[in-house]
């Protein structure tokens, strides 16, 4: 019943209806299919649209030049993420790893590559070394649909972090809590007659909050980001073997123990019943 589906808010999208946003494009085994799912939780909307915190940031490419990309600033993620397309575009060297990434509703997406580079703002007066997990996709276009901003009274002296925040566009990066609060500055402006807030950051003012109800977004979806890097399988196995490992640093063999070993080698035999027999050692 379509009406029942559309009326369910805050529920995860059914797997049969929607492809996971970050699902791996190829799955060869049942085990992979169980883990290669999105870490994003989606809900059906029929009222307002929520603006995520997006910014134009600059990433160093393989030629040592800073290139502008579009990022979501997300304080709920304990890792940083880059889309595969963006990593390829920048020509960054990918390092192998195995990192299960968990999120809302418990699904897991496996990251098998990471890149290390530098992040900067437009003026270059803020710069960070950053490690990014490579995933096939971060999310669909954000926002989900074009927004009417003609009535927004944004002060003319404000430099926005993403001047086209109202136009649906792809997302290249997700920058998590590690650096989130280093981005944030003190100034905050609440726009009149709206629930939108301008928050100052080192990239400019980000626009966040909700817009007025829009009949054009009945079938749009919202995305809740909460990603967490889990202990890797390699680390778990290594810990297991360290616990189970028998130390080879045994103390030197005493003279008595050495005598017992030699006595056993010289005197033991196997009888007709299949039992081992050894003479009792006695001290001289």
From TrEMBL:
Residues 1-10 have a biased composition (Polar residues). Residues 1-26 are annotated as: Disordered. This is Uncharacterized protein.
